[in-house]
């Protein structure tokens, strides 16, 4: 069985560690980025192995989560995307890409696992 690799973009270390742990416990491999610039670099260098994206919207200076998702879709038009946000959820209908989900903060990490798993399963069907 091939390991499914996800890119997680989150600038808050405590939240990132929690999400990484939940996704790894669910059997995913996780590549993490702490800001938009790092995320874009990872998408370019590791893009062929990244099959899903979980991103916060506000990730410090540089590209935001909306821009990261658009770049991910340029590289892989079918990549499932889960957005997380404390205050940008209202912008998802306009800024978000198709085949994506928005999880408003605060959330349980199980919601992230369920959301990305659902999108990945939908694409496999």
TrEMBL record:
Post-translational modification 4-aspartylphosphate, affected residues: 56
SUPFAM superfamilies in UniProt = CheY-like (SSF52172)
**GO biological process annotation, one example:** phosphorelay signal transduction system
- Keyword Translocase attributed: no
The protein's matches in InterPro entries, at most eight in alphabetical order, are given as:
Bact_response_regulator (IPR050595), CheY-like_superfamily (IPR011006), Sig_transdc_resp-reg_receiver (IPR001789)
The record's listing under Pfam families reads: Response_reg
Q: Which UniProt keywords apply?
A: Phosphoprotein
Instruction: Give the Response regulatory domain ranges.
Output: 5-120
Q: Does the keyword Zinc-finger apply?
A: no
The protein's name is Response regulator
């Amino acid at each position: 069985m091939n390991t499914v690799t996800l890119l997680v973009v989150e600038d808050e270390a405590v939240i990132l560690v929690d999400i990484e742990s939940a996704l790894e416990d669910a059997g995913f491999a996780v590549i993490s980025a702490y800001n938009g610039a790092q995320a874009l670099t990872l998408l370019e260098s590791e893009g062929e192995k990244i099959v899903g994206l979980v991103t916060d919207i506000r990730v410090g200076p540089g590209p935001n989560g909306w821009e990261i998702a658009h770049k991910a879709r340029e590289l892989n038009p079918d990549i499932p995307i889960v957005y997380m946000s404390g205050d940008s959820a209202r912008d998802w209908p306009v800024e978000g890409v198709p085949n994506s989900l928005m999880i408003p903060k605060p959330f349980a990490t199980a919601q992230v696992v369920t959301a990305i798993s659902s999108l990945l399963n939908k694409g496999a069907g």
